């Protein structure tokens, strides 16, 4: 019963929702009643040479006779009448087929032939009158049916393949939509979390600022009260002296007045010379200037799509003087508009502007591996030297050494083998990579106190921290891989970069922003084989933003969002386009 109902429903015109009447077939193989198509064409597309399918919108070029000239779907028509016959038990399927194959032009003669030129059934008379050779080529209808059935069957594999491709594309699109939905949820949560943190930071700073204002108010009010008390005493004293003098002049006898006159006169003269104490007018001044930033609050903005980068400038050349580098191995943003460069073979840290203007140097005792900085009022620069077991801390205000701290307890320093390789900074701490012990250590930025020691699966030759998720990116040098680990060192994703389909020779400098992970890779050997790759935060490759680099060991983002690359003898700066 269900099959029968499905068959019956498939014999209904999608325009009138009734049984097909003289169904005409379009190029897309959808059929509609002739009258329905006439009305649809006349009302919406009258006079046009093409008609879009009411269902799929695919266009069909109309013949000269327009709708009337479209091919009649006799197969569908036969099925309709077959069902009608079954319902009415009125006539046989054989009679229906016979009626439909008779020629209307030539007194109902049976159409025994098929004109391949005109693609229609014809009768014997048609072969002589309207479809004669050699202009027309016709064959027996049975042979034509077999021939074109086989022709259609040969098309089926391609159509089947196309269906599979479309199904796969549909599945891919569905998966992409699902991932996008997940990303929407994650992004909304991230925005809300960031906004909550911002509100908390703003509340903290508001409370602190109001408390400072109240303390200032209390201190200055005390000064004002003391000043007013002094003025009040002086006022009362003068009023008393004046009143007493006036009373004596009025009521005292001459002898009494003259005896008191020297005292009263002296008192009035002394009061006349007294001037009221002045209050500092600056004590009343209090104002509030809107700041450009509050702490490290910066809510940020949304990437609907991966952006392109291009090199905007390059500075530096081989050498040892100002503006020159000999093995630029690392770079970090120190303060707005400035960067610090690890100048390896010159045994120094070079401070320069984002445009390359030399600002100063910090000499170190040996070759210099890595540097990072923290943006707080202390302005500290953390430095690693080759072979050292300590992290050195410099004051960027005057480039002096402030302190140094080890990555193991002090009593174990001389007994412990280590190879300190790279530094990275989190929101609250400093990370130090140790490739010999296969760990990173986490330290307080204030005094270097060891907070945690985290084992890793990939040697931490280079480190970066994703502030958005607190995940740590570990670039493994000649292991040719990069791990994205959680804060406890557990690997979530492993990236194995390639160049032209081949594994890279080295994974080097790495940094992160809200759009993902930026990784410096090198194919090895002499020449310019270095690339900068961009991956999303799940480790999926997005783009290669730079090629032809010498040795891109260190990369970082500057204060204005540019990407700085330490590339052996120069610093290359990239920006979004």
Automatic annotation (TrEMBL):
Residue intervals of the B box-type domain: 98-141
NHL repeat coordinates: 315-355
Protein name: Tripartite motif-containing protein 3-like
Residue span(s) of domain RING-type: 13-57
One GO molecular-function entry: zinc ion binding
Keywords: Coiled coil, Metal-binding, Repeat, Zinc, Zinc-finger
Gene3D superfamilies found in the cross-reference section: Classic Zinc Finger, TolB, C-terminal domain, Zinc/RING finger domain, C3HC4 (zinc finger)
PANTHER family in alphabetical order: BONUS, ISOFORM C-RELATED, MEIOTIC P26, ISOFORM F
A family per Pfam: zf-B_box
Coiled-coil regions, chain positions: 188-219
């Amino acid at each position: 019963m269900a099959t029968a109902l499905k068959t019956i429903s498939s014999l209904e015109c999608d325009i009138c929702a009734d049984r097909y009447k003289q169904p005409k077939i379009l190029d897309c193989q959808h059929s509609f009643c002739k009258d329905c198509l006439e009305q649809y064409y006349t009302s919406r597309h009258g006079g046009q040479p093409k008609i879009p399918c009411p269902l799929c919108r695919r266009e069909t070029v109309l013949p000269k006779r327009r709708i009337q000239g479209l091919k009649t779907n006799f197969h569908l028509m036969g099925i309709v009448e077959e069902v009608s016959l079954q319902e009415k038990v009125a006539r046989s399927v054989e009679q229906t087929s016979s009626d439909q194959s008779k020629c209307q032009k030539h007194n109902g003669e049976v159409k025994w032939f098929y004109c391949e030129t005109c693609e229609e059934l014809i009768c014997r008379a048609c072969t002589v009158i309207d479809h004669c050779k050699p202009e027309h080529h016709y064959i027996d209808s049975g042979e034509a049916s077999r021939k074109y059935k086989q022709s259609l069957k040969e098309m089926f594999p391609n159509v089947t393949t196309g269906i599979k491709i479309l199904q796969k594309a549909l599945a891919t699109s569905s998966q992409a939509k699902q991932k996008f939905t997940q990303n929407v949820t994650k992004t909304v949560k991230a925005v809300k979390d960031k906004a909550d943190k911002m509100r908390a930071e703003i509340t903290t700073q508001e409370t602190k600022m109001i408390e400072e204002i109240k303390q200032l108010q209390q201190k200055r009010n005390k000064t004002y009260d003391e000043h007013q008390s002094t003025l009040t005493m002086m006022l009362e004293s003068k009023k008393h002296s004046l009143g007493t003098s006036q009373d004596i002049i009025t009521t005292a006898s001459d002898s009494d007045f003259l005896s008191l006159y020297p005292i009263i006169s002296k008192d009035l003269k002394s009061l006349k010379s007294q001037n009221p104490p002045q209050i500092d007018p600056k004590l009343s001044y209090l104002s509030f200037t809107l700041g450009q930033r509050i702490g490290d609050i910066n809510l940020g903005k949304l990437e609907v799509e991966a952006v392109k980068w291009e090199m905007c400038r390059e500075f530096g050349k081989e050498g040892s003087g100002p503006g020159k580098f000999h093995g630029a191995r690392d770079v970090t943003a120190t303060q707005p508009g400035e960067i610090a460069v690890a100048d390896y073979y010159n045994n120094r840290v070079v401070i320069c502007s984002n445009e390359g203007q030399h600002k100063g140097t910090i000499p170190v005792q040996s070759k210099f591996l890595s540097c990072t900085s923290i943006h707080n009022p202390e302005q500290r620069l953390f430095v690693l030297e080759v072979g050292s077991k300590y992290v050195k801390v410099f004051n960027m205000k005057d480039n002096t050494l402030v302190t140094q701290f080890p990555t193991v307890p002090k009593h174990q320093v001389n007994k412990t083998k280590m190879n300190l390789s790279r530094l990275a900074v989190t929101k609250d701490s400093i990370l130090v990579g140790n490739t010999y012990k296969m760990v990173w250590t986490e330290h307080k930025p204030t005094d270097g106190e060891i907070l945690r020691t985290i084992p890793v699966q990939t040697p931490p030759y280079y480190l970066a921290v994703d502030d958005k998720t607190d995940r740590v990116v570990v670039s493994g040098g000649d292991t040719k891989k990069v791990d994205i680990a959680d804060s406890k060192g557990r690997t979530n994703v492993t990236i194995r970069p390639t160049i032209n389909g081949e594994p890279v020779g080295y994974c080097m400098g790495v940094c992160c922003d809200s759009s993902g992970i930026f990784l410096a890779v090198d194919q090895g050997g002499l020449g310019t084989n270095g690339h900068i790759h961009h991956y999303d935060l799940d480790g999926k490759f997005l783009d290669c933003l730079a090629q032809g680099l010498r040795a891109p060991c260190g990369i970082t983002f500057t204060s204005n969002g540019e990407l700085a690359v330490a590339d052996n003898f120069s610093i290359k700066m990239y920006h979004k386009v």
